């Protein structure tokens, strides 16, 4: 959808003539009361469920939506009942206007000149999209990780437009450790010789080396120690016949399976993601803190919320630990709001919110059937 009007951002800057990509699933009912908005995390998009078909009508390989375990006919968020909207955030590299597009005022690629965006800006844009679709109220807004922050922000920015919020593996703000991980990843990108102060497009290069390292750092934080040990342990990539130990004793070659896995993830990421988008999104993560305007008092910050809430966390998620979800739960209870909370004992770390865990999916299904459908 194209928006011609100027959008004022939290930074004080503005953007105009921008596009927002979205996908819908299911059918909108007569009174438009069955809408579920899905907010995505760092490297995802508006394609949340289902598969794409080729010209012959056959499923395209590896085109499954990133939350296909959660959303679809008969799934926890049942598209036989709900009209689901997946929205790509402003500043992304998956269809919505971002650093890779041209500034309509200069006709030059935005690059590093794309304005800083925040979680609140994304929610405002999502609200404009709903306005254009003629949708006043959401049955639910839902997201995991950064998407969960957007869902939480919806209940504060537009409390009268949200009946329920489902916040998964998220937090009310980032810890100093989380901000530190983001900064190391950003420094890997901006110090890449091909970055060119964010205007690498003008030089016909891409800072892939920096992106690879950024992804490797991020991926480590998404997995738990248990999962890494179970999948890789100290397995060598290739046993050397030259040494009884099996090591090559090299400082540069890949020795361990975990090294090979991380390099593969980094290489894959650098082929499809934009470096400036990575900088924008991680900075938006850093900035999000609804309690900041209330002296750090989260209960006061959430006092305007009216929605019912479901929060889900995972025991081995150390990037967005269960204690962070419990902070939100306590603040909501302080405001006497309707809150359900599930802490899933799962070994998968932060990535658990994307996986097919029957207990987790069962919790979401139960909430939608018992609360959202009312």
UniProtKB/TrEMBL annotation:
It is found in: Cytoplasm. Substrate binds at residues 215, 351. It catalyses: L-homoserine + succinyl-CoA = O-succinyl-L-homoserine + CoA. The record marks 319 as: Important for acyl-CoA specificity. The keyword ATP-binding does not apply. Homodimer. Transfers a succinyl group from succinyl-CoA to L-homoserine, forming succinyl-L-homoserine. The active site is at residues 145, 317, 350. It holds the Pfam family Abhydrolase_1. GO terms for biological process: homoserine metabolic process; methionine biosynthetic process. Residues 34-355 form the AB hydrolase-1 domain. It comes from Polaromonas vacuolata. This is Homoserine O-succinyltransferase. The keyword ATP-binding does not apply. Keywords: Acyltransferase, Amino-acid biosynthesis, Cytoplasm, Methionine biosynthesis, Transferase. It comes from the Bacteria. Pathway: Amino-acid biosynthesis; L-methionine biosynthesis via de novo pathway; O-succinyl-L-homoserine from L-homoserine: step 1/1. NCBIfam families: homoserO_Ac_trn, PRK00175.1. Belongs to the AB hydrolase superfamily. MetX family. One of its GO terms (cellular component) is cytoplasm. One of its GO terms (molecular function) is homoserine O-succinyltransferase activity. Its EC number is 2.3.1.46.
């Amino acid at each position: 959808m194209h928006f011609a009007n100027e959008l004022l951002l939290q930074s004080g800057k503005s953007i105009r003539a921008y596009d927002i990509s979205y996908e819908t699933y299911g059918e909108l009912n007569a009174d438009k009361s069955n809408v579920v908005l899905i907010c995505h995390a760092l490297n995802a998009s508006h394609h949340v469920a289902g598969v794409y078909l080729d010209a012959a009508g056959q499923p395209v390989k590896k085109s499954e939506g990133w939350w296909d375990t959660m959303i679809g006919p008969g799934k926890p968020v049942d598209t036989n009942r709900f009209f689901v909207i997946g929205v790509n955030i402003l500043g992304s590299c998956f269809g919505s206007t971002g650093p890779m597009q041209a500034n309509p005022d200069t006709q030059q690629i935005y690059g590093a000149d794309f304005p800083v965006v925040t979680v609140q800006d994304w929610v405002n844009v999502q609200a404009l999209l709903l306005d254009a679709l003629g949708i006043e109220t959401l049955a639910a807004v839902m997201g995991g990780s950064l998407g969960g922050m957007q869902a939480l922000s919806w209940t504060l920015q537009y409390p009268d437009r949200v009946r329920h919020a489902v916040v998964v593996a998220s937090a009310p703000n980032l810890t100093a450790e989380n901000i530190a991980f983001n900064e190391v990843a950003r420094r890997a990108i901006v110090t890449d010789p091909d970055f060119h102060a964010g205007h690498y497009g003008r030089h016909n290069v891409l800072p892939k080396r920096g992106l690879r390292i950024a992804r490797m750092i991020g991926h480590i934080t998404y997995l738990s120690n248990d999962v890494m040990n179970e999948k890789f342990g100290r397995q060598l990539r290739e046993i050397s016949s030259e040494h009884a130990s099996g090591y090559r004793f090299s400082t540069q070659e890949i020795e361990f399976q975990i090294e090979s896995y991380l390099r593969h993830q980094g290489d894959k990421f650098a082929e499809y993601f934009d470096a400036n988008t990575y900088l924008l999104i991680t900075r938006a993560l850093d900035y999000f803190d609804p309690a900041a305007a209330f002296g750090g008092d989260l209960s006061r910050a959430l006092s305007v919320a009216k929605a019912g809430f479901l929060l889900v966390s995972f025991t081995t998620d150390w990037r967005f630990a269960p204690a962070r979800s419990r902070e939100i739960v306590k603040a909501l209870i302080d405001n006497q709001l309707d809150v359900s909370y599930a802490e899933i004992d799962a070994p998968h770390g932060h990535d658990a919110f994307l996986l097919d865990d029957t207990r987790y999916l069962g919790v979401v299904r139960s909430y939608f059937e018992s609360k959202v459908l009312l």
